[in-house]
């Protein structure tokens, strides 16, 4: 139990700046009270999530949604609040120029612009002390024949190589794949195999990030996790839940069992060890629920799944597996999943000097009432209008 608690105490879950802003679907963005008006206030809200959970000390930025004049100053502000800047997320999907793609666009001018943005993101890493660049490309095709699928892979490889060469010591990039959307016929980085192949070619500073919402229904995500971790190419997660497509709902809400299976493979593959560099990030929007509690709940959901994964009796499991005891092995696995870990986590929080129930502690803190009164005209998360 001491080992389990130590592992849980050491786990770090990163929250995304965009979770704190207003968001919605393409039909409606619902404005909420007290929403941050700038990146500085987003960091203040993220600091609340860390204050109540004790395991969310970094915040991912999204450029240009979090554009500021002075990134070193933003990083200082984060430090003053007790948090740090996590992954820098690039954005090459919002300009008119990117209608036919960014780094894979048939136009050399647009490709240059997109790659320059990625390089600017590395500058921001330098200024903030962030060690991770997260790359997601909305590039793809809507119609067969629209562009040359293979040439687009060449263009992608060229851009990635340029960005890779710009990375400093201790910096890396994570390449994110997504099955479809916004392109509907073909996507240029549609799956982990494509991302993996590009990363292997580039070298150790390029790894794959698994966004749990970016797969076809029924995909065995834990297999992908096990495979990438074994190859040293699992850079981290963008956690969220999906029911249909890229729903960006709270992680562990739709399918806590899937999250447990994923976390078991992480534990099994040593991915909780900080040296492996596996980053546990949230990538979510809270369209209809309050944002700070939505993030607190999500952090707790990952933590609960991790605790259950750590509870799997690995020795008993290995013995049952070696004997070909199908039902016995499955029972060992399910015993861990069916354990109520909430008392264990409440105890751990008390040992860490935190309130045992972060949701209740936040509600009691008065922070929401304060921001609701102080902040007028909060910003949109960046998309969804
Ligand atoms: C793309 C994505 C990617 C983006 C984020 C806002 O669907 O998951 O990580 O940067 O959404
Ligand atoms: Mn993502
Ligand atoms: Mn997504």
From TrEMBL:
MF GO annotations: L-rhamnose isomerase activity; metal ion binding
Keyword terms: Isomerase, Manganese, Metal-binding
Domain of life: Bacteria
GO biological process: L-lyxose metabolic process; rhamnose catabolic process
NCBIfam families: RhaI_grampos (TIGR02635)
Name of the featured protein: L-rhamnose isomerase
Lineage, uppermost ranks: Bacteria, Bacillati, Actinomycetota, Actinomycetes, Streptosporangiales
């Amino acid at each position: 139990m001491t080992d389990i608690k130590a592992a849980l105490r050491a786990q770090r879950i990163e929250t995304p700046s965009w979770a704190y802003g207003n968001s919605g679907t393409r039909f409606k963005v619902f404005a909420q009270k007290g929403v941050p008006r700038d990146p500085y206030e987003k960091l203040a809200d993220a600091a609340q999530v860390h204050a109540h959970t004790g395991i969310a000390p970094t915040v991912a930025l999204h450029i240009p949604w979090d554009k500021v004049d002075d990134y070193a100053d933003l990083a200082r502000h984060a430090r003053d609040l007790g948090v740090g800047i996590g992954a820098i997320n690039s954005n090459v999907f919002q300009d008119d120029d990117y209608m036919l793609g960014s780094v894979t666009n048939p136009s050399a001018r647009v490709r240059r612009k997109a790659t320059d943005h990625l390089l600017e993101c590395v500058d921001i890493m330098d200024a903030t002390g962030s060690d991770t660049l997260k790359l997601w490309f909305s590039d793809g095709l809507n119609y067969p024949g629209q562009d040359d699928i293979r040439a687009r892979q060449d263009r992608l490889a060229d851009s990635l190589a340029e960005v890779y060469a710009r990375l400093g010591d201790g910096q890396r990039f994570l390449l994110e794949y997504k099955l479809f959307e916004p392109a509907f016929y073909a996507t240029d980085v549609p799956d982990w195999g494509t991302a993996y192949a590009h990363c292997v070619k580039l070298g150790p500073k390029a790894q794959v990030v698994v966004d749990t919402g970016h797969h076809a229904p029924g995909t065995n995500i834990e297999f992908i996790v096990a495979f990438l971790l074994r190859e040293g190419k699992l850079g981290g997660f963008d956690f969220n839940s999906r029911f249909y497509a890229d729903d960006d709902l709270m992680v562990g809400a739709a399918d806590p069992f899937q999250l447990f299976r994923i976390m078991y493979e992480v534990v099994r593959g040593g991915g909780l060890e900080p040296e492996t560099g596996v980053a546990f990030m949230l990538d979510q929007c809270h369209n209809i629920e309050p944002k700070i509690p939505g993030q607190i709940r999500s952090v707790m959901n990952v933590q609960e799944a991790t605790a259950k994964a750590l509870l799997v009796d690995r020795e008993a499991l290995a013995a049952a597996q070696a004997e070909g005891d199908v039902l016995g092995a499955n029972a060992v696995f399910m015993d861990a999943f069916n354990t109520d870990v909430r008392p264990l986590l409440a105890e751990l929080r008390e040992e860490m000097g935190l309130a045992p129930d972060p949701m209740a502690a936040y509600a009691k803190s008065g922070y929401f009432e304060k921001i609701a009164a102080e902040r007028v005209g909060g910003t949109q998360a960046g998309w969804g209008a």
